[in-house]
Amino acid sequence: MSENGFAPRGDKKEIEEGGLFAPKFDADGLMPAMAIDATTREPLMLAYMNAESLRLTLEKGEAVYWSRSRKEIWHKGATSGHVQKVREIRTDCDQDAIVLFVDQLGEGACHTGRSGCFYRKIEGPEGRLGFTEEGLRFDPGSVYGKS
Amino acid sequence: MSENGFAPRGDKKEIEEGGLFAPKFDADGLMPAMAIDATTREPLMLAYMNAESLRLTLEKGEAVYWSRSRKEIWHKGATSGHVQKVREIRTDCDQDAIVLFVDQLGEGACHTGRSGCFYRKIEGPEGRLGFTEEGLRFDPGSVYGKS
């Protein structure tokens, strides 16, 4: 067991082909985690996990992130009710990134009131943004309070 | 225009609700980019882009990343032929992450010989890894050379 509570990092072969989860965190102790709606396969949000939030995610079966702005453990939906129930959690070849397939409870994942955070596509090399969904799914003010 | 060639960052409202792409890079000048197969909706890989690789991605319509290990621009597939044709590119509410919906050319995205890098699910709180695809799609040695 390594200091972060997970298996120690082995050699390249063990990391890529092995059956032990030995996650690699960056210099800040974080790893990107992409949440995807398990049913619609829409990308919901990209956030970060530290070792503790990753452990909590595995224990609870609900997405727990590390809030970089608030510098605290962030159990998604704990206040808004917009909990993400984890159906499947994956890691990649290097074991330095996470994908979560989730059932998104409530109206949406994004604090702006949308189903997910990736609601704009980048159009043309000059980078105009086009919206992929019209209007809001919920009133962010009433769910999250004034921002 | 800001120094990185994209629109300058506005206030929170402009960033979240505006129509101008004003990407935010981290302290290392990077941003995570998640590539998803546009047809199967399988997550393919999570890599990083700097401003130049993001500009090149928008110009070429093919995924161009920044290789953190080689510290160079990485036009995915330039040597392997496993190019990612971008069908749609999105950003999130904070404009600090990218999702690419791509047509993956060749046999797969992952240097291990698999269709994508997220070929293992994490099972149980103790973190055993289970494989989501059996065998390899291609011989990594013949595509990428000995590693």
How would you characterize the overall build of this protein?
2 copies of one chain form a homodimer. With 147 residues, chain A is an alpha+beta fold. The first copy, chain A, has a single domain (12-144), classed as Roll (Ubiquitin-like (UB roll)). Chain A is built from 3 helices and 8 strands. Chain A has helices at 12-17, 51-60, 140-144; strands spanning 31-37, 43-49, 64-67, 72-75, 84-91, 98-104, 120-123, 128-131. In chain A, the strands form 3 sheets. A 4-stranded mixed sheet of chain A has the order 2-1-6-5. The radius of gyration of chain A is 17 Å and the shape is globular. The first copy, chain A, starts with 11 loop residues before the first helix and ends with a helix. The relative contact order of chain A is 0.16. The model of chain A has no long low-confidence stretch (mean pLDDT 95). At the A-B interface, α1, β1, β2, α2 and β5 of A face α1, β1, β2, α2 and β5 of B. β7 of chain A pairs antiparallel with β5 of chain B.
